[in-house]
Amino acid sequence: MLKIEYRIQSEIRVALQEILERYMLIGSKLRQEVNGIIEEAKETEFCSCINQYQTLSFAIGCINCLRKRVINLLCHKGLKATLCVSKWKHTKNYPAGSHEYIEVMASTQGRKKQIPLVIELEFRDQFEIAKACDEYMKLVDKLPLCYVGKTEYLNPIVGVMCDAAKRSMEEKKLHMGPWRKRSFMQMKWSSTSERRSLNDEPSRQLLHQSCSKSSKPAAAGIISKRKLDNSC
Ligand SMILES: [Zn+2]
To answer: What Pfam families does the annotation carry (predicted)?
Structure first.
């Protein structure tokens, strides 16, 4: 029994390692640039809202303001960055919820077309579980703190981690909440999730003012699917 257990655990570890290696190979130059910008944003006083004394795992301030500051800096560097909001309704399987992340457009080789990349500032935190088994914790430690890449790699990582979380919960005899399930986690960054343009929000106006270099006309109201016209 123990032998079987070990074999499955090692398979999960190898699967994650393989996905992460492929993730690291693609877009490494842009990832390096984005990570530099994230570090730059953390060093500024990025948060001045009522949550400014909140403690993130890597900075003081709130994640919403940090996300906006990162978008701001990305725009200043000439990159096309957008704040995306995925929202989902309550169903019999899941509680209602929403999630914010950044999307940045990256040029492919030869600059023929642009592809959207997801920037998730709290990627590793998404998988933290309070009473996880050691094996699961080791997997979490392998994850990048921030995810900068295609959804192509994001979804398999989420899949492997959710399988591992399920095993960890079973081992610790804990109930697995629906928000830990793969299909729920993937909704956070899903291209088919309903997305809302934040152009109407006052903070959005400020954001646009600061990256007016390449700003596009603002689209009002709810926009679904990938095409958000609030890129800076
Ligand atoms: Zn704030």
So the answer is: PDDEXK_6 (PF04720)
232, part of any domain: no
Ligand 1 ion local residues (Cβ < 5 A): 47, 49, 51, 62, 65
Distance 46 CA to ligand 1 centre (A): 7
In a domain, 149, yes or no: yes
Given strand 97-107, what is the order of strands in its sheet? 147-149, 114-120, 97-107, 81-88, 194-195
d(CA 119, CA 189): 10
SS3 content of the chain, % helix, strand, coil (to 5): 50, 15, 35
Range of the domain at 84: 2-214
pLDDT at position 76 over 80: yes
**How high is the pLDDT of residue 231?**
38
Task: Give the distance (Å) from ligand 1 centre to CA of residue 48.
Answer: 5
Residue 106 has pLDDT above 50, yes or no: yes
Question: Has residue 214 got a pLDDT over 50?
Answer: no
Phi (first) and psi of residue 231, to 5 degrees: -65, 145
How remote is the CA of residue 63 from the centroid of ligand 1, in Å? 7
Instruction: For residue 118, give both structure tokens.
Output: 């997801």
